[in-house]
Amino acid sequence: MQGVIDFLVSLNIPYVNASVARYIVLQVLAAIVAVAAPAGLIILTWLERKIIARIQDRLGPNRAGPFGLLQAIADMVKMFTKEDITPAKADRLVYNIAPGLGMFAAIMAFAVIPFAPGFAGTQMNVGLLYIVAIGGLGTLAILMAGWASNNKYALLGAFRAVAMLLTYEIPMVMTLVMVAVVAGSMSMVDVVEAQSGMWFVVSMPVAFLIFFLSGVAEVGRSPFDLVEAESEIIAGFHTEYSGIKFGMIMIAEYVHMFALSFFTAVLFLGGWQIPFIDVAALPAPFAAILGLISLLVKVFFFVFVMMWLRGTLPRFRIDHLLDFGWKFLVPLTLVLLIGVAFVIRLFAPGSSVGIPVAAGPLSGLGMPGQVVALLVTNLLVLGLALVVVSSAARRTRSKALRAVSAVDSPVPTAGK
Amino acid sequence: MFMPSNFDPSQIPLVPIVFWIMTLFTVGGAIGVVSSKKLFHSGLYLVLSFFGVAGYYVLLSAGFMAVVQLMVYVGAIAILILFAVMFSRRPMAAESQANRQWWLGLPLMLVLFVVLVVTVGSVAWPVSGAEPTADTVQQLGVAFLGSYLIPFEVVSVLLSVALIGAIILARGKVEGEETN
């Protein structure tokens, strides 16, 4: 990025000095990201319809353009030309702002993602917390949309959505804390750098799974999609939205899904890194392009997995969902966090820069030892959790079985 | 053409501009909270006010506090307040915000305002020329587990008690239990 800034300064445009050139370059990049995120929507809707169609043994859209590629444009035209109905007695201001706020929250999340070595929107040292804060804003947008519609079902849908989002925010934040503990920093750029030894998906697979599943629940994708629940609650919180406002809500959902894939790729799969190649050491344009391509490959893999899940799994019921979140995921992540923190303390290399840290007792084993210990801890905690849950389920099942058989025990004899 | 030739865009004083924008959000939001006719709108103006405060934190180089402000206040407390508003009696009705005692309230308010402005304005606030500390997150962590360990643990116990109390209150009647 510095090369582009220097080039711009060397053009000697009036009033453009180094800091102004930097500002211009950053603005252009930000505009590219802010436009690319909804533009990725066009690819994503096409991918979604084609993938789900193929899973369901049909073709998907193939009329509008070759392979149905222009279908998204047809949809956009349709949405722009639909009549914009505002329900009577709806709260106009809130009703109109809510979709925009949802879109705003989804796109803002792209500010902290490192796309390539040296190309991050901003190198915030609290990037991980920023993701969580922006997710909270999306929750607020759903609440506003459901309330302002003046519709019982929309409000009910909004309540269920907020309950689910608040529930699954906790395991997601806990896994983010685990990543921060292992990487030693809350900045996304530092997390990518810390994975130059071994990607976190290898050393913390359970944390990766929990983050991805909670993220899918946060986005509201199937199998957690009772937020929209197309066959149940009419359309949940966006029942009363039509035309371009509905389009904006859909954009918000797809961009949020896209952002979640980016987060998973950056936090657990090493971001722009390629295994066995040191991308940051390559000459400038190749490093950026190669890094971006590798990141996009990982992102689209996760997008594919999310669409695969949607086409395959049935929807969760709200009480199953909340039970799974509170009674299984939250204790699991808490215990996992304790385990991970313990392992990191044992293997911590001592440092005297900044705040002095004493070296942990096992730090002699270095990075491979830490990776193995983290992997073992993850699998142990998961195994323990599954044993506890299965024994609890066995107890519940046997109690239910005894209750049912006790009712049936006085068997009426057939008339003799 | 319109600007003098020695205009340096990098010398635009950004900090006062951002400060006044954040003041607009905070104070405007606060005014909206008390003067809005619909209760739900008051809740949303409160969210705007929280955003302004988060902006102040960023201006003070406390990035961590800004993000925690957004996470806790906007992401949790504002949603809680909005839920409480939605369960209240007439949140969608537009009520007039004026009442009959304005002839007493207005002079009192003006006197209080003048007293506060004069008091705050007449103090010579010491301005420190020191650089704001850079890596606040690390220092916060060390402080939490070092010199401020006991308040930290006490706050955790307090939060646990609040959580358990809320669950007990909200649990209702469980079968097999006596109600008092």
Describe the structure.
The complex is a heterodimer of chains A (416) and B (180). Helices cover 68% and strands 1% of the residues of chain A. Chain A has 13 helices and two strands; from the N terminus they run H-H-H-H-E-E-H-H-H-H-H-H-H-H-H. In chain A, helix 6 packs parallel to helix 12. Chain B has 180 residues and is an all-alpha fold. Chain B folds into two domains: 1-96, Four Helix Bundle (Hemerythrin (Met), subunit A) (Up-down Bundle); 136-173. The longest helix of chain B is centred in the middle third of the chain and has 24 residues, at 63-86. The mean pLDDT of chain B is 84. At the A-B interface, helix 2, helix 5 and helix 6 of A face helix 2, helix 3 and helix 5 of B.
Q: Quick recap of the structure?
A:
With 416 residues, chain A is an all-alpha fold.
Helix fraction of chain A, binned, reads 55-70%
Tally of alpha and pi helices of chain B: 6
Task: Tell me the β content of chain A.
Answer: under 5%
Distinct helical segment count of chain A: 13
Number of DSSP E strands of chain A: 2
CATH homolog superfamily of the largest domain in chain B: NADH-ubiquinone/plastoquinone oxidoreductase chain 6, subunit NuoJ
Oligomer: heterodimer
Rg of Cα set of chain A: 25 Å
Q: What is the general shape of chain A?
A: globular
Strand-residue proportion of chain B: under 5%
Low-pLDDT stretches of chain A: none
Helix content of chain B: 55-70%
Largest interface: A-B, 35 and 30 residues
Write a concise keyword list for the protein shown above.
heterodimer, A: 416 residues, mainly alpha, two-stranded antiparallel ribbon, 13 helices, B: 180 residues, Four Helix Bundle (Hemerythrin (Met), subunit A), 2 domains, 67% helix, extended
